[in-house]
Amino acid sequence: MQAMKNILLPTDFSENSINAIKYALRFFEKRNCTFYLLHTFTPAAYHSGKAFQNFTSMELVHATRDAAAERIKNLITNLKAEFNNPQHHLKWVVDFNLLIGKIRSMVKEKNIDLIIMGTQGATGAKEIFLGTHTMYTIKKVNCPVLAVPSGYHYKKPEEILFATDYKILRSQDLRFLEYYIGLHSARLHILNVYTENLDEQQREHRKQLSEFLKDRKPVFHLTEGDDIPEAVEAFQKENNIDLMMMVHKKHSFFENILFKPVINQLVYHTNVPFMVMPVREKQSEQ
């Protein structure tokens, strides 16, 4: 796999999203990258049903765009001052658009390799681990997503966990894993979250993983117990995992882990960044 070059960083200027941007700059600090900071907006007047063509609505759009452009330029100035990395090129886009639609078009237009975004902070008893935007990006956009939990301080990924049920394994998944292990010379843990005996295809996938990554010496593990999300969380803590990776397919074990409500504050705050590789119909190899 070629070195990552084009990284998309959606931001709403919240502390959470800026934290994810800073994580991204450190995560790729030794790579030549172009980072696209993206801010989308939909003015309140547009939602209130007023005619979009009238002068005041257009004026509001321009004023909102100008203010956002000023903020994003200031943010980039501050990031350049803080990180001062000649290998990094920071560009910005401000658009009157819905976030997911704009992300989709930018992934195609800019040949985006990875989207990095923050998860939203806690909202009391109803807190959801993934913010709405992050969840929809993972579900709707055909591009890998790296989600950085709110308040997570960057730590070099030395221990990476790939959680899999061995049902899907494509050549791009193997190259993807190899790239990220190599990026930080990390140790890879491969956790089998399938609680039954593996069938022939699953055993073949496990063998392919072992052979393709043999020089990296991955460590294979089995989950203990039937509660997969609980088992993954326990493994993550016991082995000091710095980054979790998964392949996402509709109705897979992955959705049980990531799209469930998280009540326990402690569990919420000990989560680590995770990267999701999407599976789409008729997806071409990258």
TrEMBL record:
InterPro entries: Rossmann-like_a/b/a_fold, Universal_stress_UspA, UspA. Belongs to the universal stress protein A family. SUPFAM superfamilies: Adenine nucleotide alpha hydrolases-like. Residues 4-149, 200-277 form the UspA domain. This is Nucleotide-binding universal stress UspA family protein.
